[in-house]
Amino acid sequence: MRLHFLCYSSIRTDDHENLLEEITNILQVARVFNKKHHITGVLYYSHGQFFQYIEGFKPTIENLFDHIAVDKRHHAIHYYGTLPTEQRRFKDWSMKYVKGDSRIRAFLEEREKNYPVSYHVVEDNLIVFIEELILIEKSGDT
């Protein structure tokens, strides 16, 4: 079976819960589930906005996204799509967390300014964005 990845961004639901506690809970649950289902990826959060990149086998990650999409802790979900990939980009992380970073925030803001854009532009920008996450992860800035 071929590997795929999917990405989405969303806005945190402002329910006045403790942000640190909420993200810790998300990561704990994700890491256990993802390890069991051979899913890897990264979660980014900054200024009320989530971005998540998930990689694994297509049926598994799409089923996971179906559950993520109905989670009440976020809304305004923008699903970027599911695409094939030759290799895992975050193979060592059942779910890596990347905290706020100005480069990533700028990408998300630019993406929102230029909406709607063609699928190919989104795909190209996603690859650049994911590469930026990888560079941040490797630099230890998280």
UniProtKB/TrEMBL annotation:
SUPFAM superfamilies: Acylphosphatase/BLUF domain-like
MF (Gene Ontology): blue light photoreceptor activity; FAD binding
Gene3D superfamilies, sorted: 3.30.70.100
Residue ranges constituting the BLUF domain according to the UniProt record: 3-96
Origin: domain of life: Bacteria
Protein name (database record): Sensors of blue-light using FAD
